[in-house]
């Protein structure tokens, strides 16, 4: 059996040999690591398809594109701008260019990454999206002849990939603790999207802080959001309807916090007099909003620089980082005017006593 040589891919070989593409890749790069039977099937499939090694990323990678691919979950999120800026600066200082892939639209994430990585358009991948399937990613990295990969911002839990991130759980704990220290006893959380790993981590941090302080954590105080202003705005309407309404809100990111503040204002509530709000990220707008937003500052420039540095080190010298790298950067609480001491709740009885 033969197929058109121009269109033959490693997937064709894998399908005919009835093995995974990673196994084909391994049979080519490290034949001693696969069984004799598998090796024979792969060889036969290669012969039958006319597949040549030149068609694989492995041989193409002998040439360097001097470019790294940065895949981000949503280019509309301004959070990524400073990170990209730092990545580009670091890359330029090392003689590398940067390609940006926005993973937001379309579902074929792995295929889109593959298009870049198997065609020698990029020498390494900097992935800022923790929702990419770990197994498919590992397979892709193997297909592309062990293409260097660094995950940043959003961890892929238990993957063992080189990772640079910030301390999401601890930072969320400290943001919530800030509200507790101001005397707030009922604190809501404007949660990020369910599928997002950092959103889940920040929820954990919020719950840990409440738990440690012995404060209630009612499920209706967890307001669903989507890391954007629209969802923050919409959450403010639901917040108004919550029985026993909290006096403070910790939002999973600044964009949602700002949408929430705008919604509060629309409903006639004043921040921080009626509700204190803490965000997360420290976007440029946070310091200039009215009121200026108290937030957890993520060290975005450092994160971008260190992630790019690690990736380019790996591209230039594949053995340079022996064990999986895991860098966790600390976020910093920036206190501004959107948080203040909790108002003392005056009960009807107490008011009566004061009046008499
Ligand atoms: O990872 C996505 C980022 O977008 C998060 O860190 C969060 O803060 C949001 O703005």
Could you explain how this protein is built, in words?
This protein is of the alpha/beta class. Among the domains are: 1-52, 434 Repressor (Amino-terminal Domain) (Orthogonal Bundle), CATH 1.10.260; 168-299 and 333-348, Response regulator (Rossmann fold, 3-Layer(aba) Sandwich). The protein is built from 13 helices and twelve strands. The protein has helices spanning 10-17, 21-29, 36-49, 57-60, 79-93, 109-117, 134-143, 168-181, 197-213, 229-240, 254-266, 300-316, 348-355; strands spanning 67-72, 97-102, 124-127, 149-152, 162-166, 187-191, 222-224, 248-251, 276-281, 294-297, 326-329, 332-334. The strands form two sheets. A six-stranded parallel beta sheet has the order 2-1-3-4-5-11, sandwiched between helices. It has a six-stranded mixed beta sheet with strand order 7-6-8-9-10-12, with helices on both faces. Helix 11 links the parallel strand 8 and strand 9 (276-281). Helix 1 packs across helix 3 (36-49) and helix 2 runs parallel beside helix 7. The radius of gyration is 25 Å and the shape is elongated. The model is unreliable at 1-5 and 54-61 (pLDDT under 50).
């Amino acid at each position: 059996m033969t197929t058109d040589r121009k269109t033959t891919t490693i997937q064709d070989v894998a399908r005919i040999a009835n093995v995974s593409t990673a196994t084909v890749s391994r049979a080519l790069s490290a034949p001693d690591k696969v069984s004799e039977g598998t090796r024979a099937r792969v060889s036969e499939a290669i012969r039958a398809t006319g597949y040549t090694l030149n068609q694989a990323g492995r041989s193409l990678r002998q040439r360097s594109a001097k470019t790294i691919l940065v895949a981000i979950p949503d280019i509309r999120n301004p959070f990524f701008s400073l990170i990209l800026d730092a990545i580009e600066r670091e890359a330029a200082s090392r003689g590398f260019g940067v390609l940006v892939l926005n993973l937001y639209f379309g579902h074929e994430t792995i295929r889109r990454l593959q298009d870049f990585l198997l065609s020698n358009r990029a020498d390494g991948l900097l992935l800022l999206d923790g929702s990419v399937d770990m197994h498919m990613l590992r397979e892709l990295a193997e297909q592309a002849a062990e293409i260097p990969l660094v995950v940043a911002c959003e961890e892929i839990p238990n993957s063992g990939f080189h990772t640079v991130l910030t301390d999401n759980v601890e930072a969320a704990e400290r943001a919530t603790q800030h509200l507790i220290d101001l005397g707030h006893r009922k604190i809501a959380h404007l949660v990020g999207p369910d599928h997002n790993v950092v959103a889940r981590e920040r929820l954990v941090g919020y719950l840990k802080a409440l738990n440690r302080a012995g404060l209630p954590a009612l499920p209706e105080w967890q307001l669903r959001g989507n890391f954007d202003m629209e969802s923050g705005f919409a959450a403010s309407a639901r917040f108004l309807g919550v029985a026993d309404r909290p006096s403070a809100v910790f939002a999973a990111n600044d964009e949602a916090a700002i949408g929430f503040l705008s919604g509060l204002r629309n409903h006639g509530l004043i921040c921080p007099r009626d509700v204190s709000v803490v965000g997360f990220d420290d976007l440029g707008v946070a310091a200039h909003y009215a009121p200026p937003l108290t937030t957890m500052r993520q060290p975005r420039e450092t994160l971008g620089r260190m992630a790019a540095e690690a990736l380019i080190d790996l591209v230039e010298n594949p053995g340079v980082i022996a064990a999986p790298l895991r860098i966790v950067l600390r976020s910093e609480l920036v206190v501004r005017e959107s948080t203040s001491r909790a108002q003392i709740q005056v009960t009807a009885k107490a008011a009566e006593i004061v009046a008499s």
